[in-house]
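the two lines:
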Amino acid sequence: MSSITSGKSNNRTVVRPWAVAVWLLIWEAASVLIGQEILLVSPVSVVIKLKSLVFESNFWQTILFSFCRIVAGFLIATLTGTVFAALSACFRAVEELLAPVMLTIKATPVASFIILVLIWVPSRNLSVITSFLMVLPIIYTNVLIGIRSTDPKLLEMAELFRVPLSRKIIYIYLSQVMPYFQTACSVGLGMCWKAGVAAEVIGIPTGSIGEKLYKAKIYLETPDLFAWTLVIIVISILFERFFLLLLLRVVRRLERM
Amino acid sequence: MAIEVIKLSKAYGENIVLDKFSCTIEEGAATCIMGPSGSGKTTLLRILMGLEQPDSGSVNSIQGMRKSAVFQEERLCENLSVMSNIRLACGSCHTINDLRHAISAVGLPPDCISQPVRELSGGMRRRVEILRALLSEYDVLFLDEPFKALDSETKQIVINYIHSQSQGKTVVLVTHDITECEAMGAHHIISTLPQPSYP
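prediction for all of em together
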């Protein structure tokens, strides 16, 4: 049984400040060489733009609008995917019933979903559905694999000791499924931000980050485009860190119980 | 009531592990199962534990009994603490103080109660498994080579503890070592060597 909380993965790519500095210098040099802000804005201009954006009244409102919807889609998908995976692990018929649905969601291009969903729901909530659809199959598949890979010897031991299901879930399944769940959340969070913002760019709900990106494209405001992209990256990374840390804390508390 | 094993047979493919094996396990006493490797000791234990079905034969008077066990190979949840591993089997029927007391009784440091078992040594983990088995509620206790990975001094402490805690309980011990049988106070020894067949 692998450890969840011990140590950091050795495979994790480390981002070194010097490497970031080199790429920023290359970016700056390229923008100076091109000499056209519309084609390639300089990193300095992006920072200046970002500074002015932060003090705009609707900057935080815009972030909150997109953040709430994309994260809501992610959380609903996490819950639904986990429940569906648990049901599939218990009942073969549920797994068979869900298999074509999950396969279809996974294979369908995100743009098709966005356009289809736009017909069904108002554009305000488009990113909730898109984010949900992106994350659902990832969580479902990973959690199901996690449940299936639970050590049969531990389950046999639990059977002998007549361990009730609730205790079995907390002590055995949770701890065995958690590494798969963490990976799924990490991948899912990256996906939901990309797909959620793409949906907003197509649906253009008023007051969303997607709308800002769309306007930047229309008015050829490249510094705005880069600044908002930077905002999305930062929020996405910060939320992923926060969410995974929270998960780790919960698991660690269970371990020490 | 004694547990009656009647003409138990079990084969894995061509390999016959138990062939019409019969024995009686006394109630409220320790019984040792001995025999060379591959003679079916663990298979017999697994059938008694209800984890395996025999090809033929039966086991009487074991239905409805609460079982507890130390398995031959390690079966701990490595991410969980010592306390969680014990509570997995026994729930919250023991207070933390009871658990600390039991932990000390088998020579484990009381501080390790909140430590994940992956951080413990082989011998320490074995003692956690033994505590888990002893602290859960049971009518019959199965011990499959429970003292391996323990040094002779610790082994003696643990045997004494098991012996004192399982007084009056039905205990089935699988071992290769006759001294362990004696230390556990087992008067009844069953051999899994092929039994002579009478016409």
